[in-house]
Design brief:
By secondary structure, the protein is α/β, with parallel strands linked by helices. The chain has a domain of 245 residues: 3-Layer(aba) Sandwich (Rossmann fold), CATH 3.40.50.720. 45% of the residues lie in helices and 15% in strands. It contains 13 helices and 13 strands. The strands form 4 sheets. A 7-stranded parallel beta sheet has the order 3-2-1-4-5-6-11, sandwiched between helices. It has a two-stranded parallel sheet with strand order 7-10. Helix 7 packs parallel to helix 9. It is globular. Bound molecules: nicotinamide-adenine-dinucleotide and 2'deoxy-thymidine-5'-diphospho-alpha-D-glucose. The site of nicotinamide-adenine-dinucleotide has 30 residues, from helix 1, helix 4 and strand 5.
């Protein structure tokens, strides 16, 4: 049995589904169900006794201690976080609360539980913290990709809060001996991603006849990884990662944002042409840049390949085709997550960006 936090969000839900495709070990799934968490993501597990969902907050140390005592998991994987950079710019408080205070409360409850374990249960226990490449800051065009030994130089409230959480995990290992693992991954895309992030926003807006808002000159570079590949990498690290170590995970797939948006438009032109015969690319609109916008991220994923034999299975072409098809087939999912709060968010984020 393992305990997963944030397992109703994009990566967490994909992880739980991939986990059961790979093995039968039970999962306790603790999620607060913020705007980003959605039980519909786990609908295919209804009635499946291997999966137990608990609504709760990682800031609630007593709840976590109770769950650990009751279920005796052999590992905890922490996905729970506030994850959207633009939201962290408009309102950093919740990022500090969940990503920093929440990780602290979770670590402390896990430490208490782990201290009480004995023998093999204690030696085999793992706390895996899921983090981001954004902790390393930004790269110039000709800089080498981020390796595990890069300095932490976070630039947004989101990345600063994730950097703080990574430091806490590191300290709980060095000071208390908690058997931790950290993964720092690049930009994910795929099914179940909330349409506030670049790829799903562009697909959903294109199909809805809305503008496709490209920040600044659109030449910022991200290293895109299909979400199932990230999930498989996490399993690999859980199974074989060295305690106390960090593993960078990336797609070997750097692309400027504008190229991503144009690729989506061209693919939609093929599979779901606009009624007027024009290209979706006509909806592209350049808008005011994100404050403090990091120019380039790129992951050097050689360590996880050399030590654990992981490489991504999907190319960008296959991954983006699957993703677009998923959004075409799951319009009701998109409609369901586009609540009043979602529309309010779009008004807040894009109101002052026009022109
Ligand atoms: P997401 O925003 O889609 O999902 C986050 C989930 O955490 C939601 O289900 C939400 O309800 C839950 N949650 C939030 N606050 C909580 C709290 N206080 N207690 C319990 N649950 C809470 O995020 P995601 O994109 O799935 O990211 C998951 C993790 O992976 C995050 O830690 C993020 O930093 C990291 N990450 C994301 C990416 C990416 O490209 N999306 C890349 C690298 C790392
Ligand atoms: O690098 C990993 C990180 O990737 C994760 O840690 C974060 O949780 C995840 O949100 C993501 O952060 P980004 O800021 O890179 O992702 P986002 O999808 O918000 O933006 C990707 C790029 O696209 C970025 O350069 C900003 C740009 N963008 C984004 C939106 C939403 C636009 O040009 N227009 C938009 O409307």
């Amino acid at each position: 049995m393992i305990l997963v936090t944030g397992g109703a969000g994009f990566i967490g839900a994909n992880f739980v589904l991939e986990w059961f495709a790979d093995r039968d070990e039970a999962v306790i799934n603790l999620d607060k169900l913020t705007y980003a968490g959605n039980l519909q993501n786990l609908a295919s597990l209804a009635g499946d006794e291997r999966h137990q969902f608990v609504r709760g907050d990682i800031c609630d140390g007593e709840l976590i201690a109770r769950l650990l005592a009751e279920h005796q998991p052999r590992a905890v994987i922490n996905f729970a976080a506030e994850s959207h950079v633009d939201r962290s710019i408009h309102g950093p408080g919740e990022f500090i609360e969940t990503n920093v205070v929440g990780t602290f409360r979770l670590l402390d409850a896990v430490r208490g539980y782990w201290n009480g374990l004995e023998g093999e249960a204690k030696a085999g226990f793992r706390f895996l913290h899921v983090s981001t490449d954004e902790v390393y800051g930004t790269l110039a065009a000709d800089d080498p990709a981020f390796s595990e030994s890069n300095r932490y130089e976070p630039n947004s409230p989101y990345s600063a809060s994730k950097a703080a959480s990574d430091h806490l995990v590191r300290a709980w290992h060095h000071t208390y001996g908690l058997p931790t693992l950290i993964t720092n991954c690049s930009n994910n895309y795929g099914p179940l991603q909330f349409p506030e992030k670049l790829i799903p926003l562009m697909i959903v807006n294109a199909l809805g006849g809305k503008p496709l808002p490209v920040y600044g000159d659109g030449m910022q570079i991200r290293d895109w990884l299909y979400v199932a590949d990230h999930c498989r990498a996490i399993m690999r690290v859980l199974d074989g990662g060295k305690v106390g170590e960090t593993y960078n995970i990336g797609g070997w797939n750097e692309k400027p944002n504008i190229e991503i948006v144009k690729t989506i438009c061209a693919m939609l032109d093929d599979v779901r042409p606009r009624n007027d015969g024009a290209s979706y690319a006509e909806q592209i609109t350049y808008v005011t840049d994100r404050p403090g916008h990091d120019r380039r991220y790129a992951i050097d994923a050689r360590k996880i390949e050399a030590e654990l034999g992981w490489r991504p299975d999907e190319s960008f072409d296959t991954g983006i085709a699957k993703t677009i098809q998923w959004y075409l087939d799951n319009g009701s999912w998109t409609e369901a997550v586009q609540s009043g709060a979602y529309r309010e968010w779009l008004d807040t984020n894009y109101a002052d960006r026009t022109g």
